[in-house]
Amino acid sequence: MTPRANPQSERPQDAGKSHRIAVFADTHDAYPPRLPGLLAEADELWHLGDVCAPDVLAEFAALGRPLFVVRGNNDSHFAWPLTRRLERAGRVFHLEHIAPRRAPAKAEFVLCGHTHVPEDTTDAAGVRWLNPGCISYPRGQGNSFAWLTIAATGEVDWRTVAL
């Protein structure tokens, strides 16, 4: 299953309402059975690569939320882009499976997977680097995903959730 096409830029956000995005990565053909239920309250789903078989996304697509996917180094589904630039509440997010050496121009947040380890750091230029960890094959810290909440004012909250 291929996620439905979605515009890569601004998606309307209800005035005065927070926007809740489930961010996950590195499913590698598997995920805990309870994960789709945990993500059901999301306004959007962002997968940061290494889905592997596109069919793995079927249950997430069935949630009826916009599903944005970037291609990871273990993905051969070339319809997925290597990077995405998404804007929400005036904030600029860069999505890429393997973290770039430096943040792309105007990106305020760089979201990546690949390492299988959760991360939340801010570099000297003020760019926030976020990694939700992984759904399968954790490296030392267990399986996880993250909630990215963006207030209508543009304030951003990142919470990693252990599975």
Give the helices and strands, then pairings.
Blueprint: E1 19-24, H1 35-39, E2 44-47, H2 58-61, E3 67-69, E4 83-88, E5 91-96, E6 109-111, E7 118-122, E8 128-132, E9 144-150, E10 156-162
Parallel strand pairs: 1-2, 2-3, 5-6, 6-8
Antiparallel strand pairs: 1-9, 4-5, 7-8, 9-10
Can you offer a commentary on this structure?
The chain has 163 residues and is mainly beta. The protein has a single domain, classed as Purple Acid Phosphatase, chain A, domain 2 (4-Layer Sandwich), CATH 3.60.21. Helices cover 6% and strands 32% of the residues. It is built from 2 helices and 10 strands. The chain has a 5-stranded mixed beta sheet, with no helix packed on it. Strands 4-5-6-8-7 form a 5-stranded mixed beta sheet, with no helix packed on it. It starts with 18 loop residues before the first strand and ends with a strand. The relative contact order is 0.22.
